[in-house]
Design goal:
Blueprint: E1 2-8, E2 16-19, E3 23-27, H1 34-47, H2 52-58, E4 84-92, E5 97-98, E6 104-105, E7 111-121, E8 131-141, H3 144-150, H4 157-164, E9 175-180, E10 183-188, E11 199-202, H5 210-213, H6 220-230, E12 232-235, H7 239-242, E13 246-247, H8 261-271, H9 277-288, E14 298-304, E15 309-315, E16 321-323, H10 329-341, E17 348-353, H11 364-374, E18 389-395, H12 398-403, E19 409-418, E20 424-432, H13 450-457
Parallel strand pairs: 3-18, 3-19, 12-17, 17-18
Antiparallel strand pairs: 1-2, 1-4, 4-7, 5-6, 7-8, 9-10, 10-11, 13-15, 14-15, 15-16, 19-20
Domain Rad50/SbcC-type AAA: 4-43
Domain ATPase AAA-type core: 284-401
Keywords: DNA damage, SOS response
Length: 472
């Protein structure tokens, strides 16, 4: 669970600090840079999984395509000043993990702060493109005694916090950076604390972060941080992927674009239902029936042993059976989220862009309720019936804003700020709603009131505003 994100120098994110709860909605007009928050989270996840250059190539570029020029990643990418970007993430990491060799492990402590700083080196010699330079990396613990103040979102200390914040650590960091002869040197420190010698390595030519290189259980806390960051996904459901039937040999875990939806529902219905797949199908159908205009009697996955295919079928109240390829885009996306809701193995952080797309306005309350229900209930202990899942969405829809609790909202605006080289550029600011848990410290001066956001909340004539600030 990502509880806090700090970004400086990445795209239009300058000195950005944001706290997250189980569910967060970032709302604002198009063009403010809302999606850059998702890009930053995705980049951190990729840095934990692959070399830095590969991670950079997978990040969304300025026009939605993959990054073509590394300088596009930096705030001042095309200026003469030195290019640097830094990230810090405070996170609750999973307690039960497996290393790359299938061995079980758990971290020394489950509340951690990870930071990394990356620079840009221009092409040199025979090089045709620049490269990324690892300038700093650290992984430190956050003591249990500090958890109450660091987890600012409302939650149950007994049921939630005591179940997810475990272990203890004293002494040194798990990863630290020092400077020797003008160059950064990154060291791994053993989980045992001060016992054992640190393992240093020069960072200047490192192709990857230290976190991404840890594969075994010898450094279990670093591995737990890696597993947590690997679980940060950008959910971008594509109708073509959702409509595809699954072969018997295909994976039975839904991908970020919705591929393998049929196989995933089949696995849940057969494996998680304890011999009663009809119960799972009925729950999915009942949730899907909340959509106005969709007549649903049942949902099931049909096995075709001749072609060895699994296909989702929806049965309408009239008895007509429709395969997934015949369903509308909005129905398919809603169905995919219903399946995700039933899958306890799908944990981690999910970032969703504008979940209202393709949904009829009359169905927005059902969609918003479903997305919120995907997030872990922080008044209870996480478990199979309460998967440890975190949801962040962005939207420019006033209707969605009115349906979200004030404490879950952040309003995205852009302001002019001086770049590192002294020029003025547009930077993203995330503003909390006044009188909510998000207001405090520097966030206080950015808080907005209901009067401030009335222009944004303007609805069609005759509509009533329903956002109640006193409910926070």
């Amino acid at each position: 669970m990502l509880t806090r994100l700090e970004v400086n120098g990445f795209k239009n994110l300058l000195d950005l600090s944001v706290d997250f709860g189980a569910f967060t909605c970032i709302a604002g007009e198009n063009g403010t840079g809302k999606s850059n928050v998702f890009d930053a989270i995705q980049f951190l996840s990729l840095l934990a999984d692959m070399p830095m250059m590969d991670a950079a190539q997978h990040v969304r570029g300025v026009h939605g395509e993959r990054i073509g020029d590394l300088r596009d990643l930096f705030w001042n990418g095309y200026e003469a000043a030195e290019r640097r970007m830094s990230f810090a993430a405070e996170m609750i990491v999973p307690w039960d993990i497996e290393d790359d060799f299938g061995r079980a492990a758990h971290p020394t402590i489950s509340f951690l702060r990870y930071s990394v700083e990356i620079g840009y080196a221009p092409p040199f010699g025979i090089e045709k493109i620049g490269r990324l330079r690892l300038l700093h990396e650290s992984l430190t613990h956050i003591n249990q005694g500090d958890a109450a103040s660091r987890l600012r979102f409302p939650h149950s200390a007994k049921n939630f916090r005591s179940n997810v914040i475990k272990g203890r650590r004293s002494g040194t960091a798990f990863i630290s950076t020092s400077v020797e002869t003008g160059e950064p040197v990154i060291s791994i420190h053993q989980d045992g604390g001060s016992r054992g010698m640190p393992r240093p390595a020069a960072a200047s030519r490192a192709p990857a972060t230290v976190v991404s290189t840890v594969t075994g259980s010898d450094d279990q806390t670093i591995l737990a941080a890696r597993r947590e960051m690997q679980s940060w996904r950008r959910l971008a459901l594509e109708p073509s992927a959702l409509r595809t039937s699954d072969r018997y040999v295909d994976p039975r875990l839904m991908e970020s674009d919705g591929r393998h939806l049929s196989g995933t529902l089949y696995r849940i219905a057969i494996g998680e239902s304890h011999g009663d797949p009809a119960r799972i199908y009925a729950r999915v159908a009942n949730r899907l029936a909340e959509l106005a205009g969709v007549s649903v009697r049942g949902v099931e996955v049909v096995s075709d042993d001749v072609r060895e295919l699994l296909t989702i079928y929806l049965e309408e109240s009239s008895g007509l059976r429709l395969p997934a390829r015949s369903l509308s885009e909005g129905t398919l996306r809603f169905l995919a989220l219903c399946v995700l809701l039933e899958d306890p193995s799908m944990t981690g952080l999910y970032c969703m862009e504008e979940p209202e797309n393709g949904i009829h306005p009359a169905n927005l309350p059902s969609m918003v309720d479903l997305v919120k229900d995907l997030a872990v209930d922080v008044t209870e202990a996480p478990g199979p019936d309460n998967p440890f899942r975190q949801i962040i969405i962005n939207t420019h829809s006033p209707a969605v804003v009115q349906l979200v609790d004030p404490g879950d909202l952040l309003f995205a605006t852009s302001v002019r700020k001086p770049s590192p080289d002294g020029t003025m550029s547009r930077s993203l600011v995330l503003r909390p709603l006044a009188n909510t848990w998000r207001v405090g410290g520097q966030a206080s001066k950015h808080a907005v009131t209901k009067a401030d956001i009335l222009p944004y909340l303007t609805s069609p004539p005759g509509a009533q505003l329903s956002l109640d600030l006193d409910a926070a």
